[in-house]
Every structure is written in structure tokens, then in C-alpha cells.
Amino acid sequence: MSCHRGSRSPYYLFARDQLPKLQQHGLPVARVVDAIPHCAQDWALLTEEEKMAYNERAQKWKKKKSQKTIKEMPNLDHPVPGCLTTVMHRVTSFPDASAMSWKSDQAVVADIFYFLNIYSHGKLPSHCDQRFLPCEIGCVRYSLQDGITADFHHFIDPEVPPRGFRYHCQTASDATHKIPISGFHLSRTCYPVVLRELLEFAQPDGGGWPRFFCRSDDRFRITWCLERMASVAGIESHLELLTVEDLVIKLYQKKYQKEPSKTWVCRELDAVLWDFSSNTRCRWHEENGILCCALASCKKIAYCISKSLAGVYGVSLTAAHLPLQDCDSSGNRNINWVILDAGRFQKMKAESSGYDRHAISPSQDQEHIPSSCDSLCDMKTSFYGKSTTRGRGVTRLLESTSDLYKSFNN
User: Fold this and answer.
1) Is the whole-model pTM more than 0.85?
2) pLDDT tens across 93-144, in order?
3) Residue 270, class by beta-carbon neighbours within 10 Å (0-12 exposed, 13-18 middle, 19+ buried)?
4) Phi and psi angles of residue 115, each rounded to the nearest 5 degrees, phi first
5) CB 124 within 8 A of CB 165
């Protein structure tokens, strides 16, 4: 049972009442957390009425704590929305992905999904009250029919890291999204505003149940962050997330009456094809050349699903499905590879005659990629328009991408 400082469960209150009795028996229990292992048998012997009394005490404590939290929250230029509690209670629970079904292919194509991700300043140990420090949220509205129709993004004003973990959090941030822990001028959105605007974004017409999806590896972090923000805001949150992997499996099962392997689905979603695509990352991550972006992770999920399933369901790809401005006229992705090994580049150059000094002709050394409408078993990930650029790193590559693209077309 949960017994950290952010909650008071019925079992926790029972253990606290038993603490003096256990101390009288000479047990080394100085705190409630020490008494919890010794109370399991006595708790099991309680009647339902006695347990209900502890449950009512826990609910009263939780209500009192919520009211106190709202009073102590900083304004941060945004008042706490009065209608937030009502909106959050409307979104109670969602069906498991296995229960999803559609009557026809047209229903699949028109269905709307929301891909969500929340980044944190690292992950703290399980004994910490704050497992994560939410700092960025991204979400996109997507359908196979229309592609990405809207996106949602905020930098979140994070909580203060627990004492002794500031360096841990900053190091984790520097290794991923590079969002500063403090002094970041874009982090001005507090928890209540984030939750209110997220639900307004997911329910533009005020009806229907929004379906939030995320990668299975991110599910625990995102769920924890949503619950933490709701708790600090003083509201009850029942938002649940479904996994993108299960969604893709269900979409293929609907069309082919058989499921692809989860390993294959994960590999498809792990594609790095659009890491540097334009209009994918948020403005700050784009300007600073940082790959890890909560908004970009959501958009890349939509790109992967569009690439794999649009042809399967007979949908024509548009700029809302894929970043077509980064593709050639046939819809194939142009990928530039940076070779940092000068010796390998010189050897390759010596073996290749007639190649340009800076790039290999895109007509050479190409691999065939099946189109998005190929069968499930034939789908593979490879690259079109492969070129080799001599340079000092990714920075030079990005600066010369447009020139290389023009030279390829010529």
C-alpha cells in the first residue's frame, strides 16, 4: 500500500494507529513506514465496517490536502481554472486497446487518435516522493484520413528537485532534451493550466472520449506525470493511456485478420527517418538543434503510422501525413549520411570513379523500398537517395542539406 508523504491510504492510517501498540511490545518501529510490515495480519482481521471507517478518514484527509494545495499554489500569471475539476471527472476511464473495434475501414480512417508524451528532468529512485519532474508536454491530433490536424505543446514550470538530486536531474536533462531545470524563460505554464488546455485540445467540441496513446516504454512516466500534476492542482485525475503498439496491431488485424509481431511494430516505430525533418520539433528544440522533443516524438509516431498504414487503407499521403517537403518527387525520403572517419572516406573515394567531390550520385548505391501499400510481410525500412558528405559533424551536414538536395535534383 502507498505510504509516501503525498498520500494517506486506509492501511497507512491503520498502521499509524497501531504504532504505539507495536512500540509497547518492544518492536523497533520509530515511524509509520516501519510499522507497516507488522500490521498486515491485524488489518486482515478487521471487519468491513472497520475498514470502511479508515477509508472515510483517508478520503477526508485527501480532500483537506487538496484544498490546502490549491491555496498554496503560485499564480505564475495564470489563475487556477474553476472548471478544471468538472472537465477532469468527465474523462474517467478508457477501454483497453484490445477492446477497440471498428465497423468498417471507413470508420478506421475517420477515427481520431491523440498521441501524447511528457518529458521529465530524469527519473528519481522509487523512495522519492517525486519520481519525475514534468518539464515538457506534446500531443497531436491524428487520423488516417486527414493526418495531423492539430498539435499541442508546452514547456512546464517544473517542481524543485528533491534535495541531493539536482545534479542527477540536470545530467539527465543534458543527455536528452537539454531543458534547463531553472531559469528557463519558456517554462511558465503551471500544472492546472496544462491539464485544462490539454483537455480542451482533446475535446474541441466538448463531446466524445479522447483516446490518448503513447509508446509502451513511456507509459509509466506519462501516467505518473499526469497524476502528479492533477494531485498538485488539487483535482482527481483518472486519465489513462493506451499504447501505440497495441493500436498498430489492431489496425493491421482489422485489415488482414491477423496480428503482426510486436517486435516488428516496435521496430517500425523506432524509425529515425524524420529526426531532422522540418516542422517536426518545437521551435526551441529546432533552433538549438536538439533531437529529443516531446512534440517531435508524437509527430514521428504519426509519420510512422502514415507510412505503414495509409496505403493499406487506401489513403493518399499529404503534407499532414508526412513531411513531404523533405521527400523527392516520387515520395522517397532523402537521407544524408555523415562520415566522420576520414580514412574510410578517402578509401571510398579512391574506389569510386566519377563521383562528385562532396557527394555520391543519388542514382548509385540505392536500395529498393516497398511502397506503403505493400503487404505486411514485405514491409521493410531502408533509405532512398543515400549520399555521403565529408564534414566535421552533423552541424555541417544540416547547414549543407539544402545545397545537397538541389545538387541531387540537378
Assistant:
1) no
2) 444 555 567 888 888 888 899 999 999 998 888 878 788 999 999 999 999 9
3) exposed
4) -100, 125
5) yes
371/158: higher pLDDT: 158
The Cα-based distances of 394 to 337, 366, 384, 390, 408 in angstroms read 9, 22, 19, 10, 19
Half-sphere exposure of 117 (CA within 13 A, CB side): 22
Let me know: does 94 contact 209? Beta carbons within 8 Å. Answer: yes
Spatial distance between the Cα atoms of 392 and 389, rounded to a whole number of angstroms: 10
- CA 272/CA 266 separation, integer angstroms: 12
Distance CA 61, CA 48 (A): 20
Query: Between 262-269 and 294-309, two packed helices, what is the crossing angle to 10 degrees?
Result: 120
In residues, how long is the chain? 410
| Cα gap 30→271, rounded to integer Å | 52
pLDDT at residue 148, rounded to an integer:
94
Structure confidence by residue, pLDDT tens digits, 339-391: 445 555 455 555 554 444 443 333 333 333 333 334 343 433 333 344 444 44
Residue ranges of alpha helices (H) inside 73-179 are 84-90, 105-110, 166-174
Rounded CA-CA distance 144/69 in Å is 42
**Mean confidence (pLDDT) of the chain:** 74
State which amino acid sits at residue 173: S
How far is it, in rounded angstroms, from Cα 339 to Cα 346? 10
- Residue 189's closest CA among 157, 219, 211, 160? 157
Query: From CA 113, how far away is CA 247, in angstroms rounded?
Result: 10
Strands across the sheet containing 132-143: 147-155, 132-143, 113-123, 212-214, 242-243
Rounded distance, CA 208 to CA 225, Å? 24
State the Cα–Cα distance between residues 199 and 207, nearest whole angstrom. Answer: 11
- Which residue from 269, 147, 107 is spatially nearest to 260, judged by alpha carbons? 269
What is d(CA 137, CA 294) in angstroms, rounded to the nearest whole number?
Answer: 6
Strand 212-214 and strand 113-123: pairing? parallel
